[in-house]
Amino acid sequence: MDDGPLIRRTGAIAARVVIQLLAVSILDGCAVGGGPMTGVMAETGAVNAGGKLDAHVHFSESTGVILGVEQQVERRVAPGSSVQWRTLGKLGYGNLITPSRVLGEELFLVGGFGRAPDRDGRLACAVLAGVQLAAPLSLARRREPWQSDDYARTWLELVPDVTGVLDVPTGGATANVEVSAALSLRVHLYSAVLP
Amino acid sequence: MMCRLFAAIVLVVAAAGCHPLELAPPASPKPSSTHAPARSLRVGVARAEVTPPPGVSLFGHGPEGRVSDGYWSRLYCRVFAFLPDDRTPLVLSVCDLGAMGTLLQRSVVAKLAAMNDPRLNLPASRLMLTATHTHAGPAHYLEGDFYGGLMSSRAPGFDPNMVEFLASRIAAAVARAVRDARPARLSWAHTSTWGFTRNRSLVPFNQNHGEYAPDAACDAGPPPAGLLADERAIDPCLDVLSVAEVDAQGAAVGPIGSVSFFAMHPTVLPNTNRLIGADVDGVVSRAVEREMRRDWLGRAPAQPGPRDPVHAMVNTNEGDVSPKWSSGSVDEAIDIGERLGARIWRAQQTAEETAPIIDARYTMLHLPGARLFWTKASLCKVAELGVAAPKGASDHPTALTFVGDFRDENLAEGTEDACSAPKRPFLDFVQRLASGAGSFPEDVPLAVGQIGDTLISFVPAEMTVVAGNRLARAVAAEAAAHGLGARRSLVAGLANGYVQYVTTEEEYRLQHYEGASDLYGISTAPLLAERCALLTRAMAGVDVSAWLPDVDRVGGYRYTVAAERSRLPTRDGKPSIGEIEGRKIDGLCRLPGADLSLCLSWKDAAPGVVPPVDGSPWITLIDEALGAPAHDESDPLGVVDDRGLDFQTRVHDRSGNGYTWTTVFSPRAAALRAIGTHRVHVRIGSGSTQLRSPVFTVADPPRTCDEREVVACGVGR
Questions:
Q1: CB contact under 8 A, A10 and B3
Q2: Where are the alpha helices (DSSP H) in B517-577?
Q3: Count of domains in chain A?
Q4: Which residues of chain A neighbour B57 with C-beta distances below 8 Å?
Q5: Any bridge partners for residue B451, and if so which?
Q6: Residue B353, number of CB atoms within 10 A of its CB
Q7: Of B365, B482, B590, B665, which has the highest C-beta tally within 10 A?
Q8: pLDDT single digits (tens) B576-623
Q9: Which residues pair with A94 in a beta bridge?
Q10: Structural domain span for residue A97
Q11: Taking CB atoms and an 8 Å limit, are B63 and A151 in contact across chains?
């Protein structure tokens, strides 16, 4: 059976999906941000401090779907000292900030992998899963729809968030939970070209 | 196996982004098929206010379409219900909108059916909705991803509430027209007028084979001496259908309304405009309606009857025809509209009575890949915009005209085998990949009707002068061959759906703006002509089921829409009038300049809460001595309020817990005389929500606005 037409059609559709994703990122809105964070390991009480960078694509103003990635790097500050990192993919729902709305809410399911301490404090590769709550606050003046229909507009947001992540070490060690808080500065690209 | 699994995953992901919707077939009766003149005829007219609150995007200028911040003239749908005895009615609704959607047409039919009144159970095939094509009407109600998506306007999106808003108001007006119908007779004036329009796409026009001549039936004659080439390359035909109420003896009592058919893309206002408005066609209709009201008063002041006749402007083959404008201002739109309105009124008075023939045939046309029966050519399977389309027409270019790659050649090389050749697709292959099926409407209605001695082809597009002329000739030839007694054949564009422009094959090959906006390729115009000819044959009683098996059968309707966005401000917006602290008029001043122009600012409720959403006057000039609305001396029954052309009203920023609103009042001559002889003020709102401005006259005008106030009034924005 000749799979050629199917492969070509599949390729065309895949290309369409990729192009739409890129177009959405640029035209439907996206954001990049970063800032300091601090966390507490729930089982041991160890305190971590560091920073994070994240990037989000805002798929739809009405459905509020957000896709994102986040990179965290922390150092254990007490007890002891060690560097740990987490790479997270994020699927979220939010009331997004728009020129007419200065306060948003976002809820993410996060998952990924990283190098994090187990319950005994030893660094180990881990699979991660958790949730994140954020409440971005626009630093720009609120505008009415008729004042904010430029093709594209950027503004800064201050984003406090709280994240709970379950670290499941791949070597079989006991799982651990980190609860962290962060305060990020985010650059939001908003577009009036796509709905 | 892996290939198929991957394909399945990708298909599911892709389908999630563009799933088609479907309306069920309307449960409407089968229309009658009798073509002979009716024994008697009743006609009803009504006007539906469809002005949305500021805050919606304006449709028609593509990526230049701004978000509205106010309104200049109210938008109306003007409805004519033709009710021949024992036959199926024919309803014509002409709306001050940028385009007409099949979704909207079907939604109106559904709302009428839901009213549970046998008189309103109209077949979808007998409801003809057309748009005047104002580019200052709202967006957000059209199906097709591109008409609510990427670059359809600034702040695009499809809003089902907008469809509901428009459909409910149009349906209510149709109901009023049907219920208020009166015995009537029809008259047609088939004449012509030069000097109002010019061809904005002369080079493609000149490519057409054979010498173009307007239809002899409209008595055009040669163009007057002195006209430029672009002023001669138009369709000068002006057809006016006049409807008069008759008494029991059949004598005319007075005008019920009239419908004008003229080829003029009615866009005078610029693409940077933010005010909702009906543009030049709205002025024309107001001018003719004013003359008809005068006519009523002159005939029999004490006689009962409709004192609010309705006039509608229907676009014919206007795709490449613009009004002759220079400044693009509101004042110029009023000037052109008043002059054309006067011309129409003169034509209307020469109309000759015609037999009460009311008939139509209708079919749904699936455009992708559609084949012509007689030449075996076919349309393209995918609708595509050419690279010249987003540049805009030559009289209203968009910003993209001046951007790098868009300056290049419009024609594609090496694509001779492509269906759309020589079209160079906008964004090249990316358009095909990123849009896919459903980006533009694929199923559109097509209809041919006869009203009196005139055949009207209702096409869902803007046809160029020659493309429309050829279609009308094809229909006329078919009518003559099959004994339909018609004196004139014309095109009603922008009807019941919208697939942008349709050009001749010769024009298409140059791929200027109109050709690049001919979505389904070079054979679209011949296909529409062929199908309309077949519908005409069907109206003559010939069996055309071998070609068109679904004449007058209206099935389901599949469509896609762009991402949904809430764009229509609602009545429950905040603040409401009762919540505002310190609702008051903040200032009244005279704008600098020779003519009297006043600016008034006040604090009020949110768009969507205040009028014009309820259709009543919001801002009214009040005669202080009478304590009643000041009379517009040019219109015996008219008053000076924001339903006319004298106010430009804008909403601005939030002010405390309310919004700052301003209106610029620029009275026309008659209203100015009223101000000169009376002490007047402006009233905002009615009942307990009234605000009163300070009293003023021409002799005692308010102080001159300072620079800050001039800016705040939005003048020159």
A1: yes
A2: 524-539
A3: 1
A4: 149
A5: B358, B454
A6: 14
A7: B665
A8: 887 888 788 888 999 998 788 999 999 998 898 887 766 788 999 999
A9: A106
A10: 4-191
A11: yes
